[in-house]
Amino acid sequence: GSTSQMGQKHSKPLEPDGSLKDGNRGESCGPPSLDQLVEAVPAEELDQACRDEDLLELSLSLTNWQSVSPFLGLSEADEEDIEKRSSERQRIDVLRKWRAKFGSTATYRRLSEALWRAQRVDLIDKLCSLLTS
Questions:
Q1: CA 36 to CA 34: how far, in whole Å?
Q2: 38: which residues sit within 8 A by CB, 6+ positions away?
Q3: Nearest Cα to 77, choosing from 101, 51, 47?
Q4: Over the stretch 35-50, which tens digit does the pLDDT of each residue have?
Q5: How far apart are CA 119 and CA 31, in angstroms?
Q6: Is-above-0.70 flag for pTM?
Q7: Number of other residues whose CB lies within 10 A of the CB of residue 24
Q8: How many CB atoms lie under 10 A from the CB of residue 16?
Q9: Beta-carbon contacts of residue 96 (< 8 Å; ≥ 6 apart)
């Protein structure tokens, strides 16, 4: 038949990206979906603009900020500006520059999407624990 294998195998609803809604542990070697990672955080919280204290806390774990900055939508000029600062400052400045650039749309959801694309699940976990504690 022309039915997809995925449709035959699973009766659970699929996410828009084709992943299973309720976790497909053991059936895929890929990382969990972003929705799975942030499911404990209320949607209204994810859609809030990021607070400075949360960015500061997150920056403490943001080693290798250069791996994240392209996903935040920062320009090369932004990155060069950040590189002029001390390494401790660079970590928070990359997040603050992102927030300044995107203003009220610099939400926790948007940040977690960027971190997910940068494959920084560790930072998404930390962000979620900040938002649910």
A1: 5
A2: 46, 109, 112, 124, 128
A3: 101
A4: 999 999 999 999 999 9
A5: 9
A6: yes
A7: 16
A8: 6
A9: 52, 55
